[in-house]
Amino acid sequence: MKKILLVLFVVFGLLGCFGSKKNEDTAKKEDIKEVEVKEGEAKEEVKIVDGKKQGKAVIYYKNGDKEELEYKDNVKTGKTVYYFENGGKEEAIYVNGVLEGPVVYYSSDGREESTYVNGKLNGEVTFYYDDGAKREAKYIDNILQGAAVYYYPDGDKEEFNYTDGKRQGKRTYYFADGEWEEATYVDDVLRGKKIYHYKDGVKEEAFYTDGVLEGEATLYDKDGKVIEKRMYKDGKLK
Q: What is the pLDDT of residues 183-208, one digit of tens each?
């Protein structure tokens, strides 16, 4: 009987040892914290669980930038905050490794709010500046397209359109004092005729050459009669 009890004691003791060893191995797999070095680029601090990146991580880039992110099974998922060396900061959300949803970028002079759909900029983008200015535009698959409006801190407002990332076509500029100007963008540059509307009904017709007023300009009264001819040189009246 004593021999049987002794044998059972030894067997259970061995099983207990194996069980403890197994638990230790499992704990090690779950708790390994590793620093990965991307040669010449960055250093990453991340938890490795069963060979996969899991949970919160931090990447320190060689240029001074820093990124705080989260992983699930090696895939970037959840909120990410990117700190730029120049003081800027970007907050974004990743879904299965792809940018998705609202993104906010903070810079030294304001912030930008945009939206990503399946990794691409899509929808409205708004820039808010600390001096009170605001810009509104729209992205389609990472490219600025359609109507845009700029609100300037002095009360002026500019309306125009983007085509494939460039300002194209009619541009209207409203001055805070009630006067306004019509002109045309061609590949981001003002070109061709512009009409300036004064508050008293007088109009000026002039011409832009590569963004600068050049050549003859004509002033009309509110009834359309010519009242003056004048010349522009390098954007200034001669």
A: 999 999 999 999 999 999 999 999 99
Give yes or no for a contact between 2 and 9, defined as CB atoms under 8 angstroms apart: no
Angle at 160 between CA 205 and CA 173, to 5 degrees: 45
Contact 166, 187 (CB under 8 A): yes
pLDDT digits (tens, 9 = 90+) for 91-120: 999 999 999 999 999 999 999 999 999 999
* CA dihedral of residues 160, 180, 192, 216 (deg, nearest 10): -170
CA count, 13 A, side-chain hemisphere, 238: 11
Query: Closest Cα to residue 94, out of 113, 75, 78?
Result: 78
Instruction: Compute CA 167 distance to the chain's CA centroid, rounded to the nearest angstrom.
Output: 19
**What SS3 class is residue 194?**
strand
Say how far apart CA 167 and CA 210 lie, in whole Å.
14
Is residue 36 within 8 Å of residue 55, measured between CB atoms? no
Q: Is 138 helix (H, G, I), strand (E, B) or coil?
A: strand
**CA torsion angle for 208, 214, 216, 220 (degrees, to 10)?**
50
Mean pLDDT along residues 25-34: 50
